[in-house]
Write a structure and sequence with these properties.
alpha/beta, Nucleotidyltransferase, domain 5, five-stranded mixed beta sheet, 5 strands, 22% strand
């Protein structure tokens, strides 16, 4: 029986923690957004609000693209976390035909420790036994 490639991604607008569901791995991968709070303050006060929003949009698009590159290798994806970042990413992925055959689910959660994130992913993908 072939096992499905599954991944859970806890994310907000600043970081994404990727948990591949395998028996032999307790590692997670972290993807960081380049747009930090410090960048936001600098852009807002030095360059103006319009430029700050443009820079933020561009860097968020890069952030979502990196996550999308990782998602392409899986059959089932769980996006979860406390912000709307997961919904924004979901909407971007759904408009791209490369992700048409990937089952992507969204779950709202609070902030979680890495341990809780890993357990959430394991419980979500657990098959009835």
């Amino acid at each position: 029986m072939k096992t499905k490639k599954q991944i859970g991604i806890w994310m907000d607008h600043s970081s994404a923690h990727l948990f591949e569901l395998t028996d032999d791995s307790n590692e997670s991968t972290i993807i960081l957004s380049k747009f930090t709070h410090k960048d936001k303050e600098h852009s807002l006060f030095v360059k103006g609000e319009s430029l700050m929003h443009n820079k933020e949009r561009h860097q968020q698009a890069e952030y979502y693209k990196k996550i999308g590159e990782a998602v392409k290798n899986y059959e089932e994806v769980l996006l979860f976390g406390p912000t709307d970042a997961k919904v924004e990413l979901f909407n971007i992925l759904r408009t791209n035909h490369l992700f048409a055959d990937i089952k992507i689910e969204i779950r709202q959660t609070d902030k979680m420790s890495e341990y809780d994130q890993r357990n959430f992913v394991k419980e979500y993908f657990k098959t009835p036994g």
